[in-house]
Design brief:
The chain is of the alpha/beta class. Helix content is 52%, strand content 17%. Bound molecules: ligand A1D88. GO terms for molecular function: enoyl-CoA hydratase activity; isomerase activity.
Length: 246
């Protein structure tokens, strides 16, 4: 359990393992950020794969941790941890390949939307249920996966979209059977790892440099509304509703 790392040649495989659903507590977001950043700093690493164990890739922030914590430390921590983890994927000095299975929700979209390549299994679904949780955020990242009006529709309705649908939009590169997911991600990773790492690192920096979307500022802007909704009490009500099963 935890954020685990394993080297496969020049590929660093970062695995998220927080049963039962990979809803990450505050510390795990920071640990994930550290693992991805450290991997990029290692000159022997040419590419990173981000994957998960268990029922789904990611269920977002640990809502229970926020609700059982007094004050706002866990809420602020979750927001700062997500900012750090999403940013680490984007800023990683080498390409990050997300290998997604099962559900990918909320914070999971933040990770995947900032990744360089997305491979998904046939069972994968993606969604941002923030409006039902009294939070805002990850629209920045969902907007990287689908066109604007679909992003808005998904955001306002909290509906999910399948890996196959994302493939039609070009954001998911390949959709494969669940049993083939790791190998499919490794196949792309090895292809990248074969190239001159000096060129690949320069290419990552160049692609970030010409990106029209300022992902860090954009997400930080969204987070401001999460804090407003918390001050209004709307967020607390939404989280209690989720935990009480309504
Ligand atoms: C910027 C980022 C923002 C965010 O990330 S906001 C949070 C966004 N995430 C969500 O809203 C996810 C909500 N969860 C779900 O939709 C479902 O769950 C799943 C699809 C992930 C899994 O569904 P199923 O397989 O039917 O399992 P289950 O019985 O619903 O959940 C198993 C246990 O996991 C707990 N759990 C699920 N999600 C979270 C979470 N995000 N934070 C804390 N706990 C969570 C449940 O409550 C339950 O627990 P118990 O076994 O004690 O009843």
């Amino acid at each position: 359990m935890g954020i685990l790392t394993k080297r496969d040649g020049h590929v660093e495989v970062v695995t998220v393992d927080f049963p039962p659903v990979n809803a990450l507590p505050v510390q795990a977001w920071f640990d994930l950020a550290d693992a991805v950043t450290q991997a990029g700093r290692d000159p022997d690493v040419h590419v990173v794969i981000l994957r998960a164990e268990g029922r789904g890739f990611n269920a977002g922030v640990d809502i229970k941790e926020i609700q059982r914590s007094a004050g706002y430390d866990a809420l602020v921590g979750a927001n700062r941890g997500c900012y750090a983890a999403f940013g680490a994927v984007y800023d990683c000095a080498v390409p990050v390949i997300a290998a997604v299975h099962g559900f990918c929700l909320g914070g999971g979209i933040g990770l995947v939307g900032n990744a360089d390549v997305i491979i998904a299994s046939e069972d994968a679904t993606f969604g941002v249920p923030e409006v039902e949780r009294g939070a805002l955020g990850a629209a920045t990242h969902l907007a990287r996966l689908v066109p604007q009006h679909l992003m808005r529709t998904l955001y306002f309705t909290a509906r999910k979209i399948t890996a196959a649908e994302l493939h039609t939009h070009g954001s998911v590169y390949r959709v494969v059977p669940r049993a083939d997911l790791d190998e499919a991600a490794l196949e792309v990773a090895r292809d990248i790892a074969k190239k001159d790492p000096r060129v690949i690192r320069a290419a990552k920096e160049a692609l970030n440099g010409i990106d029209t979307q300022q992902v860090h500022r954009s997400y930080r802007f969204e987070q401001g509304f999460t804090f407003e909704l918390n001050l209004l009490g709307a967020s607390d009500e939404a989280r209690e509703e989720f935990l009480n099963g309504r």
